[in-house]
Amino acid sequence: MSRGNLRNIKKRINSTESTMQITKAMQMVATARLNKIQRQWDGVKDFSFYAERILKKSPFVENSFYTQETEGTLVLVITPDMGLAGSFPSDLAREALRLKQSIEDFKGFLVIGAKGYYALRHEGILLSRTNLYDVPKVDHAEFLIEDLFEIMRAKNITKVKVLYGLLKNVLVQLPATFDLLPIKKELLEIDERYEYEPSQEEVFESAAYLYVLSKLYRFLFETKLSELHARQNAMKNATDNAYELIEELTLEYNKQRQTLITQELIEIISGAKMQ
Questions:
Q1: DSSP 8-state symbol, 78
Q2: In degrees rounded to 5, what are phi and psi of residue 229?
Q3: Distance of CA 150 to CAs 96, 127, 146, Å?
Q4: Chain segment 177-235, per-residue pLDDT in tens
Q5: Is the distance from CB of 144 to CB of 180 less than 8 angstroms?
Q6: How many domains in the chain?
Q7: Three-class SS of residue 177?
């Protein structure tokens, strides 16, 4: 037993304590950001709900940009820009690859977030947007709709699937897929008694755009909430693990220190007897 071992253990304790301070600070930051934007979540869900209700009461228009269906599917993948969120970013990337393999008429990805870009950069990305927002707003959703529609028209794509982070609860965040386009006739509650003004086409186009905007805004926001919850949980687990490791190392340090002291005392006593 040497004092060198004690120094090594002490260094590990100090290093782990420094790491624990960082993970605890990041957990607190994630919690503070969650508390700040969580209050907006009900409003985002309401926006999506009422936009869908408006669409359901609208007339259905055949051969509209929103309803036509030909070969070609685009997968819009929403991922975080930052890491340290457990397996959440990699789960989204794995699900995106699985979707690519399962879609026969896959045309490419539209990727939101740096984590998705780096994971899928060799898998057929048509366009990517990174570090676009801190907290999603309607303006961001409108900007992305412009990108989406431009790609659809350029590549003759009519089908769009959205892969996002579903916030199941505060402990579980899962990849989820939603068929955004085309809009199916079954979604609408058509009532022939209604007359529409202006034209049916104008009413449907406006309602369909609002529907797509509200859904995309919701998916952006929900993925951000899922990211923050995942980071909060990951940092809490890392902090707890660091605390347990510090306790184990401190116990080992005390044991070795006690053993070393005992050994030195024995040597001193033995030396005194020999004199």
A1: E
A2: -65, -40
A3: 21, 11, 6
A4: 999 999 998 888 776 666 777 788 888 899 999 999 999 999 999 999 999 999 999 98
A5: no
A6: 2
A7: strand
